[in-house]
Write a structure and sequence with these properties.
Low-confidence stretches: none
Number of strands: 6
Number of helices: 13
Radius of gyration: 18 Å
Strand content: 5-15%
Structural class: alpha/beta
CATH superfamily of the largest domain: Uncharacterised protein PF01937, DUF89, domain 3
CATH architecture of the largest domain: 3-Layer(aba) Sandwich
Length: 289
């Protein structure tokens, strides 16, 4: 998926919000924004949005001296999601279709995305999870169920901190013994890393690897050889979040994309409204507009 002009102001907003998270110095904030504006004027837009975001956030970390501007927020959301997990697990256990219920909770937790807005409140996350099972499912769910039933080796690409705790529900239903979980190779936005996987107990549940990349998506050419071996071996890949959709759509036939539609650019691409919960099974065809 190529970067849209609409992605440019979004990257600029991310830069300002991240800088404000680590410093109240207006001079530093202005310097960062001017640098990012210069970068955005020169970057090629015929690349996927996560590639541009990777470059911008690398520069942002250099300018602010903060290795992980979102660290505090990530820890807060990990704790919030872990607190909610017992109740969500009970709801999954009593659901008519436990796998579908777990998937719906996991997609609802994709709302914990500071790339879209840094002003996510704890109550907003709780509310998103509470109302989840009433949300319609958009996608070919039965096709996914059939693919999952046959898969012996499932690769689960996580997205955000906090969200990764709720991803545990899906893995518990699928069977941890056949799932490998992949996180980002280094901090970027509030995406989950190995640190977050440890905080939510994912490393005790199943095998966890990192993808070797600091992009807020999965850029195949930027990932480690270890990750690529798992990617190529997988019978089924579950890719969480818009960043993974933006970077992987059209690259492999066995990828299911699960995410909350958060912007008009992606909405037009897949033919679903902003706010929709997308559970797109392998082979899904969007409108491509």
């Amino acid at each position: 998926m190529q970067t849209s002009l609409d992605c440019v102001p979004c990257l600029l907003r991310q830069s300002l919000e991240a800088t404000r998270a680590v410093t109240a110095d207006v001079g530093v904030q202005e310097h960062v924004i001017r640098e990012v504006l210069r970068m955005l004027a020169e970057l090629e837009l015929n690349q996927p949005p996560p590639l541009l975001a990777q470059a911008v956030h690398r520069r942002l970390r250099e300018l602010t001296g903060a290795d992980d501007p979102y660290q505090r927020a990530k820890t807060r959301f990990n704790r919030l999601a872990m607190d909610a997990l017992p109740e969500l697990r009970e709801r999954v256990r009593h659901a008519e279709d436990p796998l579908l219920a777990a998937a719906q909770f996991a997609v609802a937790a994709n709302a914990i995305d500071m790339g879209i807005s840094s002003a996510i409140t704890d109550e907003a996350v709780r509310e998103a999870l509470r109302g989840t099972l009433g949300e319609p499912v958009h996608g070919e769910w039965r096709e996914f169920v059939d693919a999952a039933a046959e898969a012996k080796n499932i690769l689960y690409l996580t997205d955000n901190a906090g969200e990764i705790a709720v991803d545990r529900l899906v893995i518990e239903v699928l069977g941890p013994e056949r799932v490998t979980v992949a996180v980002r190779g280094a901090p970027v936005l509030n995406d989950a890393t190995v640190v977050d996987a440890r905080e939510v107990g994912m490393v005790e549940l199943t095998q966890v690897i990192d993808n070797g990349s600091d992009a807020p998506g999965t850029l195949i050419d930027d990932c480690s050889s270890e990750f690529l071996q798992h990617f190529d071996r997988a019978d089924l890949i579950i890719a969480k979040g818009q960043g993974n959709f933006e970077s992987l759509s059209g690259t492999a036939a066995n990828v299911a994309f699960w995410f909350k539609v958060k912007c008009e650019v992606v909405s037009r691409q897949i033919g679903l409204p902003v706010g929709a919960h997308a559970l797109l099974s392998p082979g899904h065809k969007g409108t491509g507009q």
